[in-house]
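Propose amino acids for all 388 sites.
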């Protein structure tokens, strides 16, 4: 399966663009990428200019092209009011995939003698590195895991293969200016203060929200599951607790790895699920059972299976509350995955030399918002360290 639209589809999408003067697509993009401009260049076969328009604002344009949600540029696209929006992310991905060359790497200023540490190599850390290195800083990135990309590595390969993240990284990484330390967890940013002029903390939300029910330890966190789903390969019945995008990714992964059945348990109504229409329809297509207004009560281990006790909820006095006498048991699960959210590390440093960026600062967001946050943290450091 190709992750990219073909040449004909690309041409058709390019031709549909109205070249709106007001540029609602650009205004809706968290990094102010300019679709009207790169589409105009692409129509004129000026591919280098199209590539440059994308990469000057977005150091991870290829990855964004595959997974940016449709709530930004596409939701604002004028064409949506005529028939359907231009698939701007897919155009962006196709342009970069087919036309970005080694010579498109952005140029760097002369080294300015200052050193920055970045903790976390997710989109926020990678974006911050891209901007700082070009302003002449020496960068050291410390990443707890074995690879770059952060939470993006939990996205199933069908939506985002890891190679795509590496492809963007190739254009960020400048070997003598950026040192990447993998398997390097930093517990206290202050420990780096002596060696660096400033520190950007971009550690995301590494802690899964607990269910706080008896038997929770019998369940698997979505992080453990999605970082290495093969380890949990099951041909049996899988329960997913949660109804957002991450829970949907768990469900799709379990089905694609051969689960006999997958059921999602969602505290609210199905119409309140925070997922796109496309993802919702995909869950139905794959016969994933959606149990709305249902919460877990406890998990028990029986001889062969896990028993999940659940209860129904109702919406009363403006909140979701348990519906009495509805607790019942489902004794047939082989794997129960909890996917109800995540949290940043609690402790925040108030030193002016430590800046926070991405999901650890804003809470769970999207790739392009994390990139925007990383770029703006870098901009703050450039302003304070170079221009004050
Ligand atoms: C399953 C899933 C699907 C998603 N799907 C989409 C999608 O389709 N579209 C979209 O736009 N967004 C999606 N997202 C959200 C997106 O991935 C995040 O918003 C984004 O990755 C946040 O970037 P970040 O750099 O702030 O944090 P992260 O990506 O979480 O990166 C933080 C990095 O810091 C490292 N780290 C943590 N603590 C330490 C420490 N003490 N020392 C060193 N390193 C540390 C972590 O290992 C990690 O690599 C999805 C998220 C998940 C989990
Ligand atoms: S809003 Fe849509 S139609 Fe208008 S310039 Fe942007 S992509 Fe083209």
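Proposal:
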């Amino acid at each position: 399966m190709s992750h990219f639209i073909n040449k004909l589809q690309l041409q058709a999408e390019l031709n549909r663009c109205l070249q709106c003067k007001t540029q609602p697509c650009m205004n809706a993009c968290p990094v102010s990428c300019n679709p009207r401009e790169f589409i105009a260049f692409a129509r004129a076969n000026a591919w280098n200019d199209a590539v440059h328009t994308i990469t000057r604002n977005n150091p991870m344009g290829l990855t964004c092209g595959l997974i940016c949600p449709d709530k930004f540029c596409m939701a604002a696209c004028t064409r949506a009011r005529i028939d359907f929006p231009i698939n701007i992310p897919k155009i962006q991905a196709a342009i970069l995939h087919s036309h970005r060359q080694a010579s498109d790497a952005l140029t760097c200023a002369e080294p300015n003698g200052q050193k920055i540490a970045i903790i976390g190599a997710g989109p926020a850390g990678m974006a911050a590195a891209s901007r700082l290195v070009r302003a002449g800083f020496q960068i050291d990135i410390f990443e707890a895991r074995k690879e770059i990309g952060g939470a993006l590595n939990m996205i199933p390969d069908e939506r985002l293969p890891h190679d795509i993240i590496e492809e963007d990284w190739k254009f960020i990484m400048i070997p003598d200016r950026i040192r990447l330390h993998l398997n390097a967890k930093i517990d206290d940013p202050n420990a780096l203060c002596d060696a660096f002029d400033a520190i950007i903390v971009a550690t995301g939300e590494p802690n899964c929200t607990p269910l706080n029910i008896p038997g929770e330890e019998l369940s698997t966190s979505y992080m453990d599951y999605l970082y290495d789903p093969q380890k949990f390969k099951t041909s049996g019945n899988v329960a997913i607790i949660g109804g957002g995008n991450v829970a949907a990714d768990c469900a799709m992964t379990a089905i694609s790895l051969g689960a006999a059945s997958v059921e999602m348990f969602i505290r609210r109504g199905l119409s309140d699920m925070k997922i796109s229409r496309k993802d919702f329809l995909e869950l139905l297509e794959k016969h994933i059972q959606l149990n709305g207004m249902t919460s877990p009560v406890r998990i028990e281990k029986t001889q062969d299976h896990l028993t999940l006790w659940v209860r129904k909820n109702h919406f009363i006095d403006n909140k979701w509350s348990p519906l009495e006498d509805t607790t019942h048991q489902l004794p047939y699960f082989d794997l129960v995955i909890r996917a109800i959210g995540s949290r940043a590390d609690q402790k925040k440093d108030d030193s002016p030399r430590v800046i926070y960026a991405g999901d650890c600062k804003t809470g769970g967001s999207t790739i392009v918002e994390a990139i925007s946050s990383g770029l703006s943290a870098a901009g703050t450091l450039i302003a304070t360290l170079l221009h004050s």
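Residues 14 and 39 are 6 Å apart (CA to CA). The chain has 14 helices and 16 strands.
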